[in-house]
Amino acid sequence: MAYKGYRGIVSYDAMETIRNTNEWMGASARAIASYPIFALVPSPMFKMLSAWGRVTERSFARMVIKPDWEIPPIPGAEGQDHLVYVEPELERPFGDLVRFRVARREPMERRVLLVAPMSGHYATLLRSTVTSLLPDCDVWVTDWHNARDIPVSEGKFDVEDYTRYLTDFMTHLGPDLHVIAVCQPAPLTLAATAILAEDNPAAQPRTLTLIGGPIDPDAAATEVTDFGNRVTMGELEHLVIQQVGFKYRGAGRMVYPGLAQLSSFIAMNADTHRKAFVDKILAEATGAGSEGDKHNMFYDEYLAVMDMTAEFYLSTVERIFKNLEIAQNRFSIDGKPIDIGKIKDVAVMTVEGANDDISAPGQCVAALNLCTGVSDDRKAQHLEPGAGHYGIFAGKSWRLNIRPLVLDFMDEHAGSAPRQHPKRRRGGQVTGDTRPLGPEDDAKIGV
């Protein structure tokens, strides 16, 4: 065990050394190639070198920086903008419940908890989702912490601890709540709702919307599910679990490093990312690049990664993907079975993207079959044509098609009159104008 720990620390610090070296090389190239005297050389080489340096330095620096929320002011009906303050409401070692307080605005009827994924990126991945909901809702989000910054003394954090956090957050916010779970947390959010249904029915949310989540990973194969089925848990632990190095507060904690996760993200769409960076370097060299262009806006978020605790990552793979505990309604906490069929008073909606290559269509809608206690008129499903994984919660498909449907679903099951919208539901199935908007996913730069 001592040898394994030593190897882990070396591996973790080796990755950080490589990242730091590339950042330094980019900064050095930018500085050297930008000397005024090189402007006298009749060659584009130095402009290209400077551009490569700027792009490289920024890219590798972003990998260890948590992005800011940067929520813009919300326009008010009286013509005055309302500033948005990001305030932790409940603070826990592994994640906070964060409130987006809109200054000088009366409380909204819709109260929404966004359950952000803990899958390698920060909760700020949902920035555009939050921004789109704030004009019509009071919004909270689960803001998970980077495991490398959490001391070992705080203990473990696995899928059961994650689910307990969700039940605590939902109980704190009260029953007049609408919950939206995006991607990875969808199965555990469903389990947390089932716990409340049995142990504390008064704390259940009004509605639960599951977006692109792996409720039943075997319902439709993707590269993610194929990888999980190809490797054993022992192989997975040996390949990807490392020990946080001495640079961070969590030194000694076993984690799935964000840098390792990022490399797998990029490898899935290597050609697309390669072209994006070549185009950005050419744009910088010719003066066509800018600080706020689509490349920087996308990659400042995409490259910012966080470590996950080893126990959370491994238990997710083993219990959600391999053993299908949620899909087969066999999930338990501390040995106590959690019955999803206990959910009766919560309206449930699923959203999937037709081109989702991470949680393929069929994986998320499986939740409706598990919710045997929910009547058909309180269930809805939506399959968005032409949309990939990113587009169904933060892209054009979300803004133009999915968001209005989700708000209508909240209103329909909150005891208030539903908002009028050209889309209609029939028999729990969302129907109407669902025209394709073109492919959208996290591989398409500038979504």
UniProtKB/TrEMBL annotation:
NCBIfam families (alphabetical)? PHB_depoly_PhaZ
Q: Which Pfam families match?
A: PHB_depo_C (PF06850)
At the top level of its lineage, which domain of life is listed?
Answer: Bacteria
Chain segments carrying region Disordered:
414-447
Q: Which residue ranges does the record assign to the PHB de-polymerase C-terminal domain?
A: 212-413
Annotated protein name in UniProt: Polyhydroxyalkanoate depolymerase
